[in-house]
Amino acid sequence: MQMIRDDNWVLTVGTFLPMLGVLVLLVTPKARESAIKMVALITSIATVLVGVFTLIRFDFGKAGSMQFVAETSWIPVIKSTYFIGVDGISLPLYILSMVVTLLVVIYSLDHIPAPGNPKAFFVLMLILQTGMAGTFIAQDLILFFVFFEVVLLPMYFMIGVWGGEQRQYASLKFFLYTMFGSALMLVAFLAMFFKTGAESFAIPYLVENGAGIAKNVQVWIFAGMFIGFAVKVPMFPFHTWLPDAHTQAPTQGSVILAAILLKLGTYGFVRIAIPMLPDAAIEWAPWIGGLAVIGIIYGALGCLAQTDMKRLIAFSSVAHMGFVMLGISTLTSFGVNAAVFGMVAHGLITGMLFFVAGSVKERYHTLEISKLGGMLTQVPRLGWILGLCSMASLGLPGLAGFWGEFPAILSAYNPAAGLNVSVYRTYMVIAALGTVFAAAYLLWLYQRTAFGTPKGHDHHDVHDVNTYEWIAWLPLLIAIVVFGIAPNLLFSVIDPAVQGTLRAFGG
Amino acid sequence: MIRTTIDSTAVWTAPIIDYHALAPEIVLALGLTVVLLVDLFTSERNKWLLSVLTGFSLLGAAIPVLTLALHDDSTRSLFDGRYVVDEFSLVMKGLFLVAGYVIVLLSSAHVEEGDYWRGEYWFLLLTSLLGMVMMASSRDLISMFVALEFLSIPAYMLATWRKRDSKSNEAGVKYFLLGVFASAVMLYGMSLLYGVANSTLLVDISKSVDLNGDFAAIQALAVVFVVVGFAFKVSAVPFHTWAPDTYEGAPTPITAFLSVASKAAGFIALVVLVFTAFPSAKDVWQPFIWVMSALTMTIGNVFALRQTNLIRMIAYSSVSQGGFVLMPLAVAGGVAGEAALRAVVVYLIVYAATNLGMFGVILAVTRKTRSGEIASLGGLFSYAPALGVLLTIFLASLAGIPPLGGWIGKFAAFQALLSDASPWAYVLAVVGAVNSVIAFGYYGNVMREVWMRPVPHGDTTPIVTPSSLQIALGITAVATLVLGILPGVVLRFGDVAELVGAFGR
Questions:
Q1: Domain ranges of chain A
Q2: What is the 3-state secondary structure (H, E, C) of A293-313?
Q3: Considering the entire predicted model, what is its pTM?
Q4: Is B489 in the A-facing interface, judged by CB distances under 8 Å?
């Protein structure tokens, strides 16, 4: 793989800038809340500006190569280096993580959840940002692992301290599931290292040499990575932490969780597990595809059964990530392109849905669907935004969700060589049925919450979308529409990198 | 008869003593004498001098360790190879002295405020540390045994320091009885080794103990007995039963001392024996340590999950951490040897920094709460955010979460284990991986108490942390963070920790 080393400070600055904000926040007195909010805001704006600079300097003509590559020694004894870079797959996710953090910070200026303490809240959020961005740029397995784990504790505290009624249970469940996955993942990484001759942890090196490992060994190593990443995605049957975590997390936590954290898992499959272990990937792919379609149907049925709006959105994540994983499991560039697009689209749309859910909760003090209604008459703008996001989420053509879902289904028609075609076509049919369910649960949700007349008479203070919300939401809404109309903006960046990733499968 | 004795005395020449190599021990010996003397001649009011003197003795002893380390020819062999100052021993001596210094910082406020026999406290602490420093260099059964008793006997007394507290008495007696029992088992093993090898020098033993010939069974038995003896010292399951009671009953700074320094000394002895005395007997000790490691991690964890008392939980967690240190040793006889040695050294350094820091926070908090229950930490973050965050950092480090120190210890252990590439190594690695998740159950429980639970009785009076404790917390927190983010610093120690006599060197 070609490495472009121009401007190799950009990624380091973009990733660690939030930590500078953390240091400033730590010395800011707790009582000066406005100063704290300002520091957090400036830090995340500066981070996004570095992101914009990254976008400007990114050579889109060479999206398939690693760019801004920096490599310096870190832990020489174990042959791990500080090796970072972005290509067309990581770039959208890296930028998304920065933007989402900024928007969440803007939203939080006005919506610090109980029990308050913005200082700790923003410190955790900025640490989260470093962990997420770092995961997408790491080109060394150990570095990847460290960043992958950095996000755990801040999220644990975010759910556990600022969450809902059952926050302690939900946060511990989130943590134990993820940690279980990553512990086995680490064992798999080490096995990978030793089986390729104990030379290097660099991802490009391992991708080149991984194919030489005996197939039965590959299958076992893949199993370890599979558990690590599948828990994070989350795939059926490892998904049970997700509804609890999402339901209990504060709005900001839910948004970050849905928009970025879930992608760490799918990104791991695309960047690490599949290119490094091609033979094992072929063996595992039908199982992954099978679990993915089970997830699609299970998530959809779960949605239909929910009475809580936030929990419904959480289950819809399980279904949507099922589409992403189905695309990945085809091992074709078509499918993986769809998957990466799906990751970004899901990040935008579901992130947005959680924002709306948070604002609904703030206004109506409940998320029980049966107690909501008539949003279009009472808070028309919020109602319309919910409508747009529901449509995007169910995969309406013209909005971003479509381009993740439809090509993923289509790609299952023609999986990579070596995969059983009839199995995948069955998956395709089941997944297509899943989109019908998706339409059903989202439209039903919309009908029950937005149509009709407002219920209950204690909702006098309900106000429509306020300025902070507009600023936080507009970029996401615009992106949903823009990527829906012009998907090639994203596909043209992703595709060259995906082609490179799937070289082992004949393109 | 008398004539021959006199003749032989005349023939005997004093060995050439390398005083530079012995300087750390000499400084410590002088220091503890001074502490004892000063204690006799100072009034109660001036007893604070003793803790200062103890701290200075430790720092003073660290100077020759540094000069020895910086010296080009850093390997020095004394008394026919019975006492070796190599890089491994220097790293370990450094660890003991720094850990000892932190323990002095942790103890000083505790000792000043409690009803303690201050002079003797510092004297015994220094004596025990001297034993540990000696243990790092011992390469002979006799010097090892002397070092072991040197470090253990003061520790028995320190454990029972709170004289009128029945729990403290229980702690000391349990520790003493089981410790002596372990010593006896070990001595029996050593006597068998001497019988087989006709020498007490470890390098000679390594030549004789090869599990071949007529004495193979006796050799195997001897190896097992000696390993069991040190397994008591490092509280490996099933020889761990003293640890929870002793840790709970002993004064808290002494618990820190036992769980860090004393444990490290036990591991050092085990490492030296395994690498220099028993390399050819690996078919005996490898499976033995494999089983102990798996049991130690698992049982330590499972019991830790059930504890409501903080110190008992730490005791079981420390048992379980010991299992992780043992993990690489389970494959240390093969190609993984060097990586295993490095992993043990790194783990011990990281664990010392983290665990001492955690005890520092606990000491600071219990000054206010006067309670050992986990529930007494409720809402700590809300009224003492700095202590809350520090405790979180130390707990997360113990749980092995990057980028805090603990992860590199666990990582090094896993790496060493898997470099062996045998199925058994992989099985143990998976056991370790699952255990590191279970461990978060109880570490996370404490974090939950600190961050998410209400303050007991609504008592949010702030905590006053004495400056000595603050310094100790600063040292350990910085060490924990630096070790985690730039692990190259400590892994290099592991790399240079060349153990003379191991790997045929």
A1: 10-505
A2: HHHHHHHHHHHHHCCEHHHHH
A3: 0.90
A4: no
